[in-house]
Structures are given as structure tokens and as C-alpha cells.
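seq:
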Amino acid sequence: MDERTALLERIGELEAALSKRDGLLAEYEAEHAKKVEGIEERDAKIAKLEETVARLSQNVEALKRLLAGGSERRPREDSSIHEKQLLLAGILEGALRGPETEGGEETGVFHVAAHTRRRKGRRRRFPDHLPVLRTVIELDEEHRRCACGGHLEPMGEETSRELERVEFTLVHEVVRLKYSCPRCHEGVVTAPAPRRVIDKGLLGVGFLAHVLTERFLNHMPYHRQEKKYASEGLDLSRAVLGASAMRCAELLSPIVTQLRREILASDVVHTDDTPVTILEDSAGRRRRARIWIYRDLEGRCFFHFTENRSRDGPREILDGYRGYLVADAYPGYDHLFVPDGATEVGCWAHARRRYVEAEASEPELAKEAIARIAELYAIEKLARGMNPAERKALRERRSRPRLARLRNWLAAKREQVLDKGAMARGIDYTISNWDALTRYLEDGRLPMDNNAAERSLRCVAVGRKNWNFVGNRAGGETAAAMYSLVETCKAAGVDPREYFRDVLLRIATCSDVTKLVPHAWKEHFLPEVEKRRHDALRRLFPVA
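struct:
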């Protein structure tokens, strides 16, 4: 009995020990689970911090480029570095090769020849259209005696030429003679008055053309023009200059409307926008407005001013348009891309720009993406000078297979990058807009990017650094109208100053406004204007 009792006690002790062990084990497992959970939380925090660091690093690099005003162009690299970056076997083989073999797949990188510095040559000739003022310098009579006692006679001349500039303002006094009958002293008749741009205005057509060109081509704001003219003794306030420009914009508005009509009649239209600052009230408070551009393939430009960036701006201009619309992926255009509406054409420059921004956080992948896009641009360089049919055939043969490989590469790399990183955003942008980005393959007239619109908008970007803001909505609309004409003149190869000087007077008598847009004006009226200018200069400077 004692042995049984002792055995039971021993069993109880063992059970107590086991229970204690189980308790300790449970505590250990709970503590271990807590540590594992803490490790997982720490890993999640580390991953989040890595994403934040990558994003901030990318922002810092973007700000550095913004402050430095750097270009997105890539530095030229040698082929060995190029091979290491792409990590694709045989990518250089067959570059720029001829027609593909039947059933074969084309690969290769297009190498663009490096820019070579033009060797210095002889001094350029002076333009033939400039007048020549000839100054003849003669010897005084007392210096025309030779040492032998003879008289020096002219035997030739030594001529040197230099460019000179004379910029001045004059008062144009128009005298209208009056006539009367000496017999009855009645029937007084006055000679007719010449046409004037602004009735009873201070500025003649030449001065108005100068003000418009200085303001909208050379980006000189009215307050700086006011100071310039004051230094010449002219009392012309910025208010007078601004009101005169606004009146000119009103007179030229039929031409701007015709420009808009011709652009929307084309099959391909570029569009983009840029911000400007507008004064909200007399206290100087400011807010953001927008200037939009609509440009056709021949360079006709129509600028449109709006007080915000809502979709109402594009809707007002493009509602009912059924051609190709080259644009970035701004959602404000989406309502235009309907079955019976416009067809979206994406911009590879916008897509590429996202990989440039991703270089700070994902340099290897970003550089490879940029290199692959560069191959597409190299093909476009080869297509320069081709007609649309030839360009479309070249793209089908060379660009389409590269685009397919790029699409597969982006999809594979998307799984390897941080979800919130710059590289992921670039890939997501490219893939989500893939149909629009590859639409340029459909038609040889379509561009690969929207750089034409961005180049035309540069006038606003450069100008706002000088004039800083527009005073009100009317000022913004005036600027949009004048930029439309100036940029179209530049595309047509027309001097805006000469154009304004002629059309400001001609528009009052010309019944066909289609002849007054810059491209048509160049064909119909420029020869007449050049002859009139040539004759006037020859009267002033008869000796050439």
C-alpha cells in the first residue's frame, strides 16, 4: 500500500512537471510567435522605408534636373557598355541589316552617327535683300601729290563691308490736301484718308507690328517695352501698348478662327497644354490658368486660353472631331475617344520620360527601357524623307517586332520592381496606354510622339519667364490669338513682323480670309510685299 501511495505521488509529481513543461512550452511558443510577428512587422516597415527612400531619391534627382535645366537626351556610350546594359545575347548582330529572311526574326540596335563639328570656313556672305549704304572716302587735294611731282589719279578702290543697324522711331505726318472752286468758293473736297489700323490711335501699322513682334516673338513684356521707349523720349505706357495689342487681336480674330477651322479639318491634330498665371483681382492674388495648343502636320497652330484645366477646354475645341488626336494620357481627353469620335495616338516621349525619372531608383532597368525605346526612335530617323506608305512599311518590318518584345519585357520586369516605385509607375503607364502608343504603326503620317506640340508650346514657356502672368482673361485670349499667328508664321517660314505689317491693313479690304492665314498669305501676297519693300529701299538707298 505504501508502495502504491508512493507510486501515485510520483505519478502526480511527473504530471505536475509535465503540466509545468507544457505551460513553459506554451509561453515559449507565444513569445516565439510574438517575435516572428515583430520580425514580419519590421520587414514590412523596412520594405516601406525602401519604397519611400526610392521615391524620395527619384524626386531629388528630378528636382536636380529641373533646377539644372538638363535635357532628356542620353549621352552617347560605346558599344561594350551598351551590351552590358542590355544583357541580350546577339542584340548588336544584324543592326541596320537589309530585308529579313523569310520566317526570321529581326533583332538589332540602331546606331545613330555622332554629331560632327562643322569646320570653320570663309565668312558668310551678306544677305542680298539688305540695302547697301555706300560711303566713299577720298584723299584731300593736298595729299594727291606724288613724290615725283605728279598728280595722283583714281585707279581703283579697296572695299570693306560690315553690318550696321539703325533703329529709330519717326513721326508719320499724313497731309490731306483740300480743294475748292475759286469761282463759287463752294464744293470743298478733301483728299481721302489712308487706312489706319486703330482709328485715332497713336501707333501706326509699322509700330504696331513691332510691338506685337517684341511681345509675342521676342517675349518682351509691355512694362519693359515702356521703359525702352521712354529711353527714346516716347511717352507710351504699358496700358496703351496692351490695349493696342488687344485691338489688333480683335481685328485679326477672323484669321485665327480660320486657322482653327483648317486645323480641325485635317486628319491628324497634336494637342497639349501648359500652365500660366492669371491675376485674380486688383489685390494681386493669383491662380493657375492654361493655354492649350492644337497643331496640324503642316505647322498651323491654334492656341486656346482657359481659366482651368477641366475637360471643358478640349471639349469646346475638339467636340465632333473624328481624326487622329496625338496627346498625352490626360484624362480630360478621354470623352473624345468614343467609337464615332477621335482616335487616340499616344506619345512615346511621355512614356520615355518616366523611365528617365526612374533612373535614380532603378538605374539598370530604366536604362534598358530607355535603350529599347531609343531603337524605335532610330527607326523613325531612318524614315525621315520617306512618304507615308514607305514609312508605314518600314515600321511594320522593323518597329512592330521590337514593340512586341518591349511589351513582353515590361510585363516580365513589372513583377520584379516595387509596386510604388518610379519604375513600376513607368511600366504601368506604358502598358495601360499600349494601344495608343502603338497606333502610329497604322498610318505613315502619324508621329511617334507629341514633341511637335511641345515645341510649339515652348513660346509660352519661355515667354512666361519674362511676363510672369496675364492680367485678366482678355489678356490671356489676346496672347493665345497672337501666339497662334506667330507660331504659324514660323512654321510657314514667314517673318511675323512683315506679316503683321501687311495683314493689319489688308484684312479690312480682303474678302477672302482663307488667303490671310500665314501659309496662304505667303503664296498670295508675300511676293507683292517683297517687291514693294525692295522698291522703297532702292528709293532710299539708290546706290548698291
